[in-house]
Design a protein that fits this description.
The chain has helices at about 20-30, 50-55; strands at about 10, 40, 45, 65. The chain is an alpha+beta fold. It is about 25% helix and about 15% strand. The protein starts with 8 loop residues before the first strand and ends with a strand. The strands form two sheets. Strands 1-2 form a two-stranded parallel sheet.
C-alpha cells in the first residue's frame, strides 16, 4: 500500500493568550482529499522563564513534550 500525504502540520502548546487554529483547516483539507497528515507535536526544551530573562541570567523550565 502506498501512503499519500498532504500538508504537514505543527501543533504548538497553547498559552492563555495564544490559541492558534490554523492547523485544523489543513487537517480537514487533507482528509477531504483522502490524504494522510503528518502532525508534528510541540516540545519545550531549554525554555527560559520570563522572570529569569528579565534578570539577565536564564533559568530554564523543565522540558515538556506534547503527547497524543
Amino acid at each position: 500500500m502506498v501512503y499519500r500525504f498532504g500538508e504537514i502540520v505543527s501543533i504548538p502548546f497553547f498559552t492563555e493568550t495564544w490559541k492558534p487554529t490554523s492547523f485544523y483547516k489543513k487537517i480537514a483539507e487533507n482528509s477531504e482529499r483522502k490524504l494522510h497528515t503528518l502532525v508534528l507535536l510541540d516540545i519545550k526544551v531549554k525554555e527560559p522563564t520570563m522572570e529569569s530573562l528579565a534578570r539577565g541570567k536564564p533559568v530554564y523550565m523543565d522540558p515538556r513534550y506534547m503527547s497524543t
